[in-house]
Amino acid sequence: MDIDAFAAVHRPEWDRLRALSSRSRLTGAEADELVILYQTTAGHLSALRTKAPDPLLVSELSGLLATARGRIAGTHEARMSDVSRFFLRSLPAAFYRVRWWTVWVGVAFVALGAVSGWWVATTPAALASLGTPAELEQYAEEAFAAYYSNYPAGDFAGQVWTNNAWIAAQCIGLGISGVFPVYVLVANAVGVGSSGGIMAAHGHLDVFFGLILPHGLMELTAIFIAGGAGLKLFWAWVAPGPRTRSRALAEEGRSLFVVALGLVLVLAVSGLVEGFVTPSALPTWAKIAIGALLLAGYWTYTLLFGRRAVRAGETGDLDADQAGYALAQAG
Questions:
Q1: How many angstroms separate the CA atoms of 257 and 210, rounded?
Q2: Cα separation of 62 and 49, whole Å?
Q3: Is the pTM for the entire model greater than 0.85?
Q4: How far apart are CA 224 and CA 248, in angstroms?
Q5: DSSP one-letter code for 316
Q6: Which of 79, 207, 251, 316 is deepest in the core (most CB within 10 A)?
Q7: What integer pLDDT is reported at residue 200 of this predicted model?
Q8: Residues near 73 by Cβ (< 8 Å), separated by ≥ 6?
């Protein structure tokens, strides 16, 4: 395909579509013409993507079609039904579709963390590489526990929330690389395992689990979800199935954006637990029970509402017309 010739032939149609899309009022004939030009230009964009994906022209036509689609469909006002749909259908469906990625990432994380902790606790050279004997003893006796109570609970919860939400967003947003989620997960697994190894070597493994489990059950699961979602995006690029790679990435990316929004809420709750419950005077069993209930609530929500939503055809993605896959029809 000769891009310059193609653009020269169809430029008048695109200019006319741009002009109609920018008008505040249209006659009936002009509205029909707008729809017809929208359909025609969508065909041009499809042909370009298939035969000669010139990035500048594809970007221009995509923007033009987005403007025209907004002019045809009108603006969408947020309603309470949209909020309920998000929490009862879109979000649980998005979580449900990454459930196995979450499980396998979690299994790998725990296994790597356990091996790392065992190595540090049983290998003097590995333990010595983490600090001097005095530093390690101070960490095990004071610093590990003090981390959860050195700052006001509200400030600490907010700091933990924003940090973990940023990490989760990066895992999803940079997941297409296939590298960043793995790096984050491995680094965190080794870090958590090494901390546990230091505590075990000094006879404080009970303190380690007593402080990390109340918030960590849900917090680490959120990181597993983010890592699994990022890897799922990478896999959509590697193996798109019957879809084109661009469409597979677009569909999975929009669905996983819903996951990212949901994780902001999940991590906010786990941040509150870490800020207020973990350092509290509650018995250890009670603090762990709160963390376990929070985790059980997440999986109940995901499996119950998510399975139901997916069976009803929900994916967490936009509707076909909002995503631009359904073309308007002239009246």
A1: 33
A2: 11
A3: no
A4: 22
A5: S
A6: 316
A7: 96
A8: 321, 328
Query: Distance between CA 39 and CA 330 in Å, rounded?
Result: 9
What's the confidence (pLDDT) of residue 134? 94
pLDDT confidence bin for 74, thresholds 50/70/90: low
Amino acid making up residue 31: A
DSSP state of 131: -
Least confident of 65-79, 181-195, 269-283, 285-299: 65-79
Greater confidence, 196 or 329?
196
pLDDT at 325 over 50: no
**Of the listed ranges 54-63, 95-104, 150-159, 322-331, the one predicted with least confidence:** 322-331
H or E segment and range at residue 22: helix 3-22
Residue 321 has pLDDT above 80, yes or no: no
Across residues 212-240, what is the average pLDDT? 92
Cα–Cα distances in angstroms (integers) from residue 124 to residues 31, 88, 119, 221, in the given order: 77, 52, 9, 31
CB 136 within 8 A of CB 130: yes
Torsion of CA 47, 51, 54, 59, to 10 degrees: 30
Burial 39-77 (b: 16+ CB within 10 A, else e): eebbebbeebbeeeebeebeeebeebbeebbebbeeeee
- Look-up: residue for tokens 């790597």? 112
Question: What's at 38, amino acid-wise?
Answer: Y
Give the pLDDT confidence score for residue 329 in this predicted structure: 46
Give the CA dihedral 114, 120, 122, 128, nearest 10 degrees: 180
C-alpha dist (Å) from residue 159 to 150, 165, 203, 217: 13, 10, 30, 18
Q: Name all contacts of 119-124 with Cβ < 8 Å and 24+ positions apart.
A: 119/193, 119/197, 120/193, 120/194, 120/196, 120/197, 120/198, 120/200, 120/201, 121/196, 121/197, 121/198, 121/200, 121/201
Q: What angle do CA 53, 58, 60 make, to 5 degrees?
A: 160
* Non-local CB neighbours of 169 within 8 Å, separated by 6+ positions: 226, 260, 263
